[in-house]
Amino acid sequence: MVIESRSRIVKHLVNRLRDTSVDAAVFRGLLRECARMLLVEAVDTLPVAEKRIDTWQGGFTGEFIDEGNIVCVAILRAALPMQEGVMAALDGVEGGFLAMKRDEESFKSRLYYDRIPDIEDKTVILVDPMVATGGSLHDALTLLRQRAPARIVSLNVIGAKEGVERIERAFPDVDVHIAQIDPKLNKDAYIIPGLGDAGDRAYNTV
């Protein structure tokens, strides 16, 4: 299921990301903050467990997010700030990494790095800022599903309508929390209006 954020602060952050005058450091900070905001919207899908802790007035048993049963997977490289945002809020979760490169002629993605801990029966939070054609996200979700997680939650900043619809058709059981759905792709499969290449803008590369 695709859930587009209705939060005004999330929309504000997205529109700041669109601004070409925003430098790389600020851009990364905005991605981190978007991830934290989307995490709040997705929190009901995360596992919880009771835990006993010591407080200043003695022992206390309360409900906590079950961080030991969550893995946050980033699609490199643009998703790294988003992963940092999630893992700053939930510092007990494990991190995983997938690296994919888009072929600029076919627009298909190619996996060239896979470093993911055991996710069987765990909740995976997959982070990736852009959903253009949906190819990279589709391939990542296919790979993760083969490893038998309990559930997958995807956090994304901007997606083109056709790419988002492709993911929803292929993975109806995945909750996709996305900050903004933009109208279309251009002939080069870039999101319009989008925000440019998130990886390049985050790390000052071309």
Description:
With 206 residues, the chain is α/β, with parallel strands linked by helices. The chain has one domain (2-43, 69-203): 3-Layer(aba) Sandwich (Rossmann fold). It has helices spanning 8-18, 24-42, 80-89, 135-145, 161-170, 198-203, and strands at residues 2-4, 48-55, 58-65, 70-76, 94-102, 109-115, 123-127, 130-131, 151-160, 175-182, 184-185, 191-192. The strands form 3 sheets. Strands 1, 4, 5, 6, 7, 8, 9 and 10 form an 8-stranded mixed β-sheet that branches. Helix 4 links the parallel strand 8 (130-131) and strand 9. The model has no long low-confidence stretch (mean pLDDT 93).
Examine the coordinates and then state which fold CATH places here, giving the name of the CATH topology: Rossmann fold
| Proportion of residues in extended strands | 25-35%
- Taken in chain order, the helices and strands follow as EHHEEEHEEEEHEHEEEH
Q: Give me the CATH architecture, please.
A: 3-Layer(aba) Sandwich
| Class from helix and strand fractions | alpha/beta
Q: Which CATH class is shown?
A: Alpha Beta
| Residue-averaged pLDDT | 93
Q: What's the alpha carbon Rg, rounded to whole Å?
A: 17 Å
Please render the helix and strand layout as text:
Elements (H helix, E strand, L loop, with lengths): L1 E3 L3 H11 L5 H19 L5 E8 L2 E8 L4 E7 L3 H10 L4 E9 L6 E7 L7 E5 L2 E2 L3 H11 L5 E10 H10 L4 E8 L1 E2 L5 E2 L5 H6 L3
Parallel strand pairs: 1-10, 4-5, 4-7, 7-9, 8-9, 9-10
Antiparallel strand pairs: 2-3, 5-6, 11-12
Helix pairs in contact: 1-2, 2-3
